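Continuing the batch. This is chain 6 of the set; chains 1 through 5 are on the previous pages. Same settings as before, nothing changed between runs. Recording input and output for traceability.
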Amino acid sequence: MASYYEELQFSTKGENDMKDITNDIQQVISSSTLKEGIACVFVPGSTGSLTTIEFEPGLQKDFPQAMNEIAPKNKEYAHHETWHDDNGRSHVKASLMGPSVTLPFHQGKLIHGTWQQIIFIDFDTRPRDRKIIVQLIGEKLKK
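Output for chain 6:
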């Protein structure tokens, strides 16, 4: 059993900005010497999340709208009183979604559905520079 670690970095716009990172995760797997295993994809921080979705224009509108119904912008959050900021809703959304996904890979290829992409969602109220950690655990292909 072996492991491989890599970080991805990018900027976001905030306010439900969604990034398809499926190809980035595949690139990390391809860059490693591992062929069979699992990829743990994790975002440090408490206002961003990872999930899988069909990353198409309709859902790119529907998903943020649904999240805004769960934790609306024009609501008072106790978090605002603690830190005197405006991103209480961001923390609520990210907490519900979670900071990581774990996916298998086989013969060096990420396993996911045809219409299933890995996405990062930035729920914060402002643009951010983000880091995604990818930790692979697996084995090299035996000859």
